[in-house]
Amino acid sequence: MKLVTAIIKPFVLDDVKASLERLGVLGMTVSEVQGFGRQKGHTEVYRGAEYAVDFVPKLRVEVLIDDLTADKVVDAVVEAARTGKIGDGKVWVVPVETVVRVRTGERGNDAL
Amino acid sequence: MNTGDTAWVLASAALVMLMTPGLAFFYGGMVRSKSVLNMLMLNFIALAVVTVLWMLYGYSEAFGNDAFSGLFGNFDNAGLAGTVGQLTGPKDHQIPVLAFVMFQLMFAVITPALISGAIADRTKFWSWVIFLGVWVTIVYFPVAHWVFAFDSADGSVLGGWLANKVKALDFAGGTAVHINAGAAGLALALLLGRRKGWPKEPMRPHNVPFVLLGASLLWFGWYGFNAGSALGASDLAAVAFTTTTVATAAAVLGWLITEQVRDGKPTTLGAASGAVAGLVAITPACAFVNPLGAAAIGLIAGVVCALAVGLKFRLGFDDSLDVVGVHLVGGIIGTLLIGFFGTTSVNSAGADGLFYGGGFTQLGRQAIGAFSVLAYSFVITFAIGWVIKKTIGFRVEAEAEVTGIDESEHAETAYEFGGISGGGRSAGKALGVGTVLEGSKS
Description:
The structure holds two protein chains of two kinds. Chain A has helices at about 15-20, 70-80, and strands at about 1-10, 30-35, 40-45, 50-55, 55-65, 90-95. By secondary structure, chain A is of the alpha+beta class. By secondary structure, chain B is mostly helical.
């Protein structure tokens, strides 16, 4: 099993969600996060005083998926989230040792 | 008694009353979310403290018959004695003395409230309350006497030295209110020192819509402040109403154009600040200049104040919400410009300035008015603040300042953001009335 984590621009969430649903992904976790990459933050000006806002609002999408589908999920997210401009985000995949469904106690792929 | 004039003065008093809560929101939006309640309270409490003192002796100290060389009034009207049922004003335009008492009270309330913006985010509440009481007693009440108390026509009641001896013109409070509060703000900002982290850490306004709402309430209330200072529903009130509007509009444009040129964007905070700068600058001049003069004063104030708010970074004092840059600078601009744009064509009680053939005479008088109030206010405020700082302390502990002054001074927070809670299951529990949280007593 794999955990696919994607940092994306907030406004592409609906596209990402739709393309993951088309792939048959049954669940995901979304959280609001802040951070910066190569694009850095932005500046705001109050009464002439400039403030550097280092962290930009982003969304973190996490999907647990079986090993075979993981690459497709990554491709789907990347395609849906790409605007071609700086700040589009990142996607990474890490192996997962085990997964348990809380309601039934099922383990492994059955719990996905 | 003239009922039309009385109605306008009473309505104006109510309008000016609204300025203090308006100011609270103007300032409150500019501070960080952890100190907005303290900011609102520093303003709102002025309504309570100053009103009681005004009734007890403040009115008498400011507008009682002169006690000593035009410096302050005597205390014959303490407790508002001798005011009920009495009339004041010129023949055919008499209003109840109590209408005048209430109108002037609102000026005495908002002036010290203006100072609070210079010491946002770090002021002990009760120390501020004590400062308020002492400051109005030995700074505002006397200065109001200097500027606003006129000799009566028959000479039986004598007023203050700036109004009657120097003959400096100040229609609605450029010196007594704005220069006075601005100089006091500078003194306290220097005395209390910078906020932790200023100017390195960003201290962004937490609610810019509040700022614009507050500025709009101030603009609305300012019609009472300026047009109401005619003390009657008169031609002069309409002149003041017009010049106030024109100058404010021009100042908004002046500030925004300055921002566009300097920073590349016109900001909401700039529009709100420009409006207030224009209102401040036209205040002393509103019944002494024509509409064109008002536009010039507004435009100059908008541009100069937009540039002046940057001074604190150069000079290194943390006048948190720019009381100096807006009120002191704006007040000086308006007071001095009467010496240029003043014209007796709008008001025979006024004076002709430099541009209307009056020479430098009035400009000199205006300068005496502006700088005597500035110097007096700065020195005395510094002294009052110093005593408070050395005795009960004026500033909260560093830890309270960082975690949030709302919580440390008032045991409240302005906004409940929800945070982590499961429908009340783990969101904490009510402690009941009178329960003291452990560690909250220090």
